[in-house]
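INFO batch 0412 | record 1 of 1 | parsing
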Amino acid sequence: MTENSTLRIKALDWPFLLLLILLFLPATVLYTSTSLEPTLTLRQFGLALGLFIFSIVFFKQKIELELSSYLVKYVFLSSLSLLLLIPSFWVALNVGEALNELVKSVLSIASIFFAALIFKHNPKRITWVSRAIVLLAILHSSISFLQYYNLYFTALEPRTGLAPFGIMTNRNLLGSALALMLPFCVYIILTDTKLWRYIAGTAVGGILWGIFFSMTRSVWLSLVLATLLGSICLFYYRKNIPLIFVKNWFRAIGLLGILSVCLFFWLLKGNHPQGPFKEVQTRLLQITNPQANPVENSNSIEQRKALWSTTLNMIQAHPIVGVGAGNWRLNAAKHGIFHKWESTNERFVPLRPHNMYLQVWSERGFLGLLMFLATWSIVFMAIFKSFRQVETKNKTLLLCLTIGLFFFLFDGLFSFSNERIAHTFLVSVMVGIVFAIVPQSSDKKALLPNGQKTLIISALLFATLVSFGKYAVDKTSFRINAANAQGDFEKTIQIAQNQPLFLLPSLNSSADPIAFYIANAYFSNEELSLALQYIEKAKKQAPYHPRVLNNAAYFYFKNGQAHKAMKLYEQVLSLEPNFKNAMLGLMELYYKRGEYQKSYNLLLRSKLENAPEYQQFRLNLEKRLQH
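INFO prediction complete | emitting tokens
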């Protein structure tokens, strides 16, 4: 590589680092702290746009690149896995969701590619990035702290009192995001100056606080397993690492282990009053004895079993190409998810199976799962084959990154951190650093062909457009939902009429079609024909969505199409047996048709027979049945 090429890369790496910082700074939080604007898809759009602009500037420099064999293999296999996604578009219920998953994979590959190039030619930037993540970890945990004590950022989504959730809108994702920042903080503690060690120590304290009070068992367990496996790797390579480092590592791990065991038994056996420690104790009891302390929430062990069982049914029904990327949540009801819940909520639709591997398998088929595992095997092959060869400082870095990557893969057994673009980008930075620091015997030094440059830029342009479409859907959906909640249906209709022309990913972050909200607004505005038109669109976008089908049935009933309404109500109850609104709607239809026994059975099934508003109806039914 020429000296000019190296200087050009050093000049270009600052925009990449700025992109990393902006991705995690609470700019989106400040933008959304008092409104319902979406933050999740805004980050995806920001990453796509940033990578697109960066790629244009980067490739204009005509830089001679050093592409390591591991990086080439990784990009090749990852690109091949993208090609395997294309056939799934034909089986996907919602092609827009499949396109969005394809885009997220493109952004991950591009992030790894550019990170590997930048860190290889300017290794000092690894320390700078790690320092930036240390500061962001402090900021992230501080936001969580303020939420937990109800001091600030309490207007952020989901606004349900389930604090802390940081800027991730979910406790699971808060815990996993903080855990993915931990390796960078530990690296700074082990290798940087005294001042930065103190700052990183503060960050670690905030991270551990956030992980503990996020009440996320998958993160607790995954972090323990990742640390143990990383320690085993360190022990295996101990002859290639300074003895003092090995001793200090195991002393620290031993002390942390003793403190953790003491804390575990204190939490498990103590008589704690109602509060955070009581909630932690409850969750620990769910791990040690789930039958003794059942808790009805979407993260319970029993519900995970239901999710996994449903996913296995889905895999069995679609073993070759899966149900289409991003389409798990559209097929879950079809494969009996609601039949396995102890209780259901009519406003709740399961969004993911809480297992990254089962989700990949169910959505992309068996070949897609093999390609997913193959790409990860390349990453760990690069780590383990190079551990003895790198210098001591990079051994420390490799160990920290290995634990971070182990954590991500273990967490994937129980959770869904791969769905957030912020988590994906952190993992991409880790993988990019791995490919940058592992020594290679035969690096390829060449200009990237113009055709490949054009392909990368075009892919990122496509990713930017689709990501903007996804953000536009979320933004429009949030605004419509807010207007509906205020009863301002005219505003809802006005927003719908002014929505962007292309909305490829047609579902919001809650798996609701945007047309569903528009249909409800038209119905509330007594424009039944337009309500039926939009509810039909919603049915096409999410054909097994219980609430969409229930509202469609009600609209048809009001339009005098009782037979069509009855079939839809029956379909809703076949998908979600405890859906009360569907029971009551069908109960009324049966009554009008003179099928009193069926109507009475549904009333009993709804458990509303003694409710004041249904007592007279029950009495009327009983009189009819006696005659």
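INFO post-check: The radius of gyration is 27 Å.
INFO record closed
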